[in-house]
Inverse folding.
């Protein structure tokens, strides 16, 4: 156990932060019924990372972060403005188009790099096992910054999520949608290289869905999801450490198993 705490303390702390922050966004995403917006934003962030590492040849983490952030800002602005088209085209279709085009562009860019295949694999699976305390503090700092507007304007964000399919009750909410996507994107940009796309998606969606299986109230969904996320990620880390398995993939599969168990339990208690 002492070896686990020595080597895995920082990844455990990161997983706890992800559990609290990404479950919150996941509950909002479920209410908005735009499930794949996070993986589209993650792909945009990944494109920025791959572009910087391929063409800029930078070893400065902050420069890579800036390129990734620029991609996410562009995506957030695009998603916020295209919501006006939902009366003609479901926004999930727009999100899907952005994802597949950005993923293909990332493959093209990676093909120009010497270790392009490694870049793609690292972005997909992440390397949370090598999470350091400075990285944890950076993620925590971004989480606190993001939490401030969401707390101050929590009623506004909640109303927008509840009325998302009705166009926000007829109001022009482009700015608020942009702020929502940007704040989610900031968390993703900060964690994309360490957590990876697959794990970010698991943290964001699976706990929120489990919370929705057992409650219709947002706060209850959030609490249930956060607790389940923390326990599941801790279990996944322990399994990965003791069985010498790939950490990111083990965590995602653990989330999947917990999701199946949650479905069975929810059916037996109806």
């Amino acid at each position: 156990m002492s070896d686990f705490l020595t080597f895995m303390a920082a990844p455990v702390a990161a997983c706890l932060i992800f559990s609290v922050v990404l479950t919150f966004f996941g509950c909002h995403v479920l209410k908005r019924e735009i499930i794949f917006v996070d993986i589209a934003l993650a792909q945009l962030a990944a494109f920025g990372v791959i572009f910087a590492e391929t063409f800029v040849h930078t070893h400065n983490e902050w420069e890579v972060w800036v390129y990734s952030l620029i991609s996410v800002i562009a995506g957030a602005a695009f998603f916020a403005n295209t919501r006006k088209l939902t009366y003609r085209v479901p926004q999930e279709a727009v999100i899907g188009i952005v994802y597949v085009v950005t993923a293909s562009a990332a493959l093209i860019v990676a093909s120009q790099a010497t270790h392009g295949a490694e870049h793609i694999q690292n972005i997909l699976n992440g390397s949370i096992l090598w999470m350091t305390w400075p990285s944890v503090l950076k993620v925590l700092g971004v989480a606190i910054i993001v939490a401030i507007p969401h707390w101050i304007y929590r009623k506004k964000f909640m109303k927008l999520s509840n009325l998302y399919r009705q166009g926000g009750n007829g109001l022009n909410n482009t700015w608020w949608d942009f702020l929502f996507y940007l704040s989610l994107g900031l968390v993703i940009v900060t964690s994309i290289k360490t957590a990876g796309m697959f794990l970010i998606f698991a943290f964001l969606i699976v706990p929120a869905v489990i919370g929705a299986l057992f409650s219709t109230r947002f706060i209850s969904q959030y609490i249930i999801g956060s607790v389940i996320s923390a326990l599941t990620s801790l279990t996944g880390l322990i399994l990965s450490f003791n069985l010498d398995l790939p950490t990111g993939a083990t965590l995602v599969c653990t989330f999947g198993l917990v999701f199946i168990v949650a479905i069975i339990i929810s059916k037996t208690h109806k």
User: Anything to note?
Assistant: The chain is about 80% helix and 0% strand. The two ends are 39 Å apart (CA to CA). The chain has one domain: 2-264.
